[in-house]
Amino acid sequence: RYHALVASLTIFILAIFIGFELITKVPPTLHTPLMSGSNAISGISIVGALIAASAGDSWLAAFIGLIAVILATINVVGGYLVTHRMLEMFKPKR
Amino acid sequence: MYDALINLAYVVSAILFIFGLKFMSHPRTAVKGNLVSAGAMLLAILLTLLVTGVGAYVVAGLVIGSIIGIVLAVKIQMTEMPQLVALFNGFGGAATVFVAGAELLRPNTIGTSDVLLAAALSGLIGAVTFWGSLVAYGKLQELQMFKKPIDIPSVHLINAIMVMVLLLLIILMTGTGYSVLPYLLIVIIASVLGVTLVAPIGGADMPVVIALLNSYSGLAAAATGFVIENNVLIISGSLVGASGIVLTQIMCKAMNRSLLNVVFGGLQSAAASTGPAAD
Lengths: 94, 279
Known about the structure:
The structure holds 2 protein chains of 2 kinds.
Chain A lengths: L1 H21 L8 H11 L4 H8 L5 H32 L4
Chain B lengths: L1 H23 L5 H23 L3 H20 L5 H25 L7 H28 L14 H22 L3 H19 L7 H23 L2 H24 L4 H6 L15
């Protein structure tokens, strides 16, 4: 069981390093869209929400999971859509 | 075997997230980057549904959430986008609070201390993100009660005490394995902390605060990944957590402020923030 934990921690630390290296020079016009776009990515907790909502072993857990599904879906769908709208604004100027 | 294939496919989703973020930081590829990232998310959702099965109940949740998200994103004025991002970010944070809470309620959850620690952290960071984002939303929307930076007497001392209590609760929860009540207390105190952390900061600094809270919600998602032992959550959560910190610092530099100055010097910036919120 602790092998799995060490594997997860390894993945976590490596992903943190990639995150630090990924964005270095960002022009100011992209600050807000990038923030909005990465905000949509943090809606990945929707995966956990879907798993919790399908829990067969606890009625209460499934209900709380359903609330999480709704909240995370708003984050994901709204987040990507609003980011797309922001980026569309820049198009004609380029 | 089936599980292994699903996990392998999650790796594809994680790689697409990395490329999406990379593309998004360059003007010419930004639109493509957002689409790649959205595709990665769709893939992750579909893979999860392959495992859990498609229940009517879950579909209802997805449909309701999508409709609310689409309506909010389409109806919003261009000038109101930063506060909408804050609101979405808050919902993401709240989702991690509920996911970790739901996992604690399930009888099958392995109550080892590492899982409990991860659950406590998801609840803590998620609640701070949710309430902090709501306050940021209120400030940018210029709601009456947030017009001026709110002066809470000796706010740093109160925050320090709350952090101490939170640490004690986390130790209690991971040490004893007694989880539901400490978890509720952690979420409640972290909610207060989210408000007291953001309330004193002036409206002009809100974009930086939202960037920081965005980074937090990534870390909360990564913590949730440890709870449900899912690598795609751990990877994309920590990607957002780390790149969010970098972005926060870049934004601070663009505004000629230091991050510490924004977070702890909220009251000093009161004079500067009486103007319209700069974005």
